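Input record (one chain):
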Amino acid sequence: MKKIILFGVILTLFISCQQQEKPAISFYYWKTIFRLSPKEKNCLITNQVKRLYIRYFDVDLIEQTQMPYPRTPIRFETSTANFEIIPVVYIKNKVMLDKKLNVLDLAQKTNSFIQQINSKKNIAIQEIQIDCDWTLASKDNYLHFIEAFKKVSKKKLSATIRLHQIKYFKKTKIPNVDRGVLMYYNMGKIATDSLNSIYDRNIATRYLSSLKNYPLPFDIALPIYSWGIQIRDGKIIGLRNKIDAHNLKNNSSFVLTKNNWFTITRSNFQDGIFYKENDQLKLETIAANDLFEMANDLKENTTQNPKEIIFYDLDEFNLKNYEEGLFKKVIDCF
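The corresponding structure, as predicted from the sequence alone:
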């Protein structure tokens, strides 16, 4: 009897330790050339990163023929020997909306192109991730593609999942993959209002309670990127990446009029972009406090512990906005 009780205590402690295990830190890499800077390398070492999710290519439609084709494939200039690589293929939803789409052909060609990229650098993979914001109109093609791709690739398969696909999964359905990755960003519309389209807690709370009901195991992707929205005469004319607020504050042509909003006082070119006098530039950023808030909200509203938190995305420009130990502190919230 004592042995049974002792075994029960040990089993309870073992399960408790498993439950307290923190998720691993991983990163998305979303550039067309894989070339790590010293700061990026240091980030990976400091955070003991073992897995990198690298965007291999996009799948878009050729304008003239409306046929799918791979766009901007990755080129490797830095060795990936120290990491497990998970190729990510971003498929535009308009590809899946094509009612004449040959799903099997697309699956075969997508898999073949991944193999070509891997063979050039002798990269061995165990998993592939498909990134597509499918809708009710495209779900049939998308779900059939996932089935076909899984058979063709014979690899472990993961898929990105948006909040609306979790809340309405009975309508949008669940792809037949081994796991999902919840993209906890790009929540709102890119607009001229004061809201942050990357992360808005008010929008997030509409979906959080649905997370407990989602049948597919999922990990979580969190944002560490920012961008600027250029506005002219009340209309959006462009999305500007890698806008350095510090540089703008030191530029007399840009005047900070309110939090994260700049008014252009004199027409000028900045990093190859033309800004006209009286244009406005709205910066959307993710602060450290936002990441802690996201992590705590997700912890409270998920029954499953994510095995991995994937930060989007690994880029020296993004990393400089956060203290070195931040990512581990965010992980500690889970």
